[in-house]
Amino acid sequence: MASCACAPLSVTGMIQRSLLMSKGFRPQLMINASKYLQLSPHVFHHRNYSQSAQPAENVNGDVNYADTPSATILDGKSYPKDEWSNVNQKILSYTSRKLHLQKYNPLCHIKRRIVDFMYKEFPSRTRSPLFSVFEDLSPTVSIEQNFDSLLIPKDHPSRKKSDCYYLNKNHLLRAHTSAHQVELMRSGLNNFLVVGDVYRRDEIDKSHFPTFHQLEAVRLCGLHDVFRDENIARELKIFETGKVARSPEKQESHTVDAVMMMTNALQTTLIKLVHHLFGKDVETRWVETFFPFTHPSWELEVKYNGEWLEVLGCGIMEQSILQNAGAGDKIGWAFGLGLERLAMKLYQIPDIRLFWSVDTGVVHQFKVDDPYAPIIYKPVSQYPPCKNDISFWLPENSTFSSADFYDLVRSIGGELVEQVSFVDEFYHKKKQRWSHCYRIVYRDMSKTLTQEEANIIHSAIEQAAVKNLRVDIR
């Protein structure tokens, strides 16, 4: 299937054609709509690319990418395109935003609170922080980093083209901050935090965005770190000496004693972290789960406003990962959490798009130097939504992916798209074709979006879907 990466390039032309062909065409509407799309801080942060592939400025004015028909250039490196390439310009524009490094962004406030906690919870003998923090690593990683190093099977669904943003068959935008674990352990680090933007092709609604932010923690322990008491350390061991089968409670190479000590340390740390963020009265519970890179594994949930909310995943790291990283003589634990999920609850932020807003009414609410300041988000205004349905016949003899359609909608509509929901499908026996119907909800976070303006964007999406996804509008 052809990539939809080129969709934004022809949006202006599409809009002009849509207006000229419409029965109720008014020249002033075309002028207003064009100005709206150019000036809105939520749509098309970049201008169209020239024939020489010069990138447009993003909202911060610092460009780190360019796109040509044959290659994607990101952070000064060129990645030749192939059949796996599916990163569009809109996604590339997010790679330089680095919201977690912007001092007054709520994600930065949350990050600072977590880092403060880890520093205080794990002081070194010299009273300097035990954990190293990496928060500006390139989001471009190899397939080996993102999947193979973490023991993710070759046939795992998370590797699918419909789930990730691939630069080509060998490189992608990281799907999780865990992609950096092995390289940092190989450098000799035993304790570190990684904070960064991650990218996944996901559904579109108020709580999902193709770019979000994670914080990852890894702690490796030797014998005397696990068993602090010298007398106990002489009697107990981290690793089994004979052949022992893997069980639900532990890996085959770890002793029961070591896993019990590591589990207690991990879970005690995370309960304290949750109390640090949500208050000591919050209810918590552990849920056993499965991850390819940890065993045993858990998710921690908190009861927030009467509902159980998953806040993080964690576990005892697979020993083969440590061995491959040159740290086979240690045992480790790790956890990872999503910053947006925490910030949306703590600050009562109703829509994930608000983290990306440059509207002063939003930004000024978080312009405080103290990350512990008790802030409750106040809506700038309740602007009405515009809802448009789109129905089309799927291409014959071709695999259609909803993820490609969602990407196309996002690349054209930008942050004006609040939600895309799959409404219906049916099979026409005579035509021998499937039909899909989707509902797109448009809403501007800073001003009223008229139905006429929404219709212009919707028409551009229809035309791009026909051109790039080879569907037929019904």
From TrEMBL:
<keyword id="KW-0809">Transit peptide</keyword>
<protein>
    <recommendedName>
        <fullName>Phenylalanine--tRNA ligase, mitochondrial</fullName>
        <ecNumber>6.1.1.20</ecNumber>
    </recommendedName>
</protein>
<keyword id="KW-0030">Aminoacyl-tRNA synthetase</keyword>
<dbReference type="GO" id="GO:0006432">
    <property type="term" value="P:phenylalanyl-tRNA aminoacylation"/>
</dbReference>
<comment type="similarity">
    <text>Belongs to the class-II aminoacyl-tRNA synthetase family.</text>
</comment>
<dbReference type="GO" id="GO:0005759">
    <property type="term" value="C:mitochondrial matrix"/>
</dbReference>
<dbReference type="Pfam" id="PF03147">
    <property type="entry name" value="FDX-ACB"/>
</dbReference>
<feature type="domain" description="Aminoacyl-transfer RNA synthetases class-II family profile">
    <location>
        <begin position="196"/>
        <end position="371"/>
    </location>
</feature>
<dbReference type="GO" id="GO:0000049">
    <property type="term" value="F:tRNA binding"/>
</dbReference>
<dbReference type="InterPro" id="IPR006195">
    <property type="entry name" value="aa-tRNA-synth_II"/>
</dbReference>
<dbReference type="InterPro" id="IPR004530">
    <property type="entry name" value="Phe-tRNA-synth_IIc_mito"/>
</dbReference>
<keyword id="KW-0496">Mitochondrion</keyword>
<dbReference type="InterPro" id="IPR005121">
    <property type="entry name" value="Fdx_antiC-bd"/>
</dbReference>
<keyword id="KW-0436">Ligase</keyword>
<dbReference type="InterPro" id="IPR045864">
    <property type="entry name" value="aa-tRNA-synth_II/BPL/LPL"/>
</dbReference>
<dbReference type="Pfam" id="PF01409">
    <property type="entry name" value="tRNA-synt_2d"/>
</dbReference>
<dbReference type="GO" id="GO:0004826">
    <property type="term" value="F:phenylalanine-tRNA ligase activity"/>
</dbReference>
<keyword id="KW-0547">Nucleotide-binding</keyword>
<feature type="domain" description="FDX-ACB">
    <location>
        <begin position="381"/>
        <end position="474"/>
    </location>
</feature>
<keyword id="KW-0007">Acetylation</keyword>
<dbReference type="InterPro" id="IPR036690">
    <property type="entry name" value="Fdx_antiC-bd_sf"/>
</dbReference>
<keyword id="KW-0067">ATP-binding</keyword>
<comment type="function">
    <text>Is responsible for the charging of tRNA(Phe) with phenylalanine in mitochondrial translation. To a lesser extent, also catalyzes direct attachment of m-Tyr (an oxidized version of Phe) to tRNA(Phe), thereby opening the way for delivery of the misacylated tRNA to the ribosome and incorporation of ROS-damaged amino acid into proteins.</text>
</comment>
<keyword id="KW-0648">Protein biosynthesis</keyword>
<dbReference type="GO" id="GO:0005524">
    <property type="term" value="F:ATP binding"/>
</dbReference>
<comment type="subunit">
    <text>Monomer.</text>
</comment>
<dbReference type="InterPro" id="IPR002319">
    <property type="entry name" value="Phenylalanyl-tRNA_Synthase"/>
</dbReference>
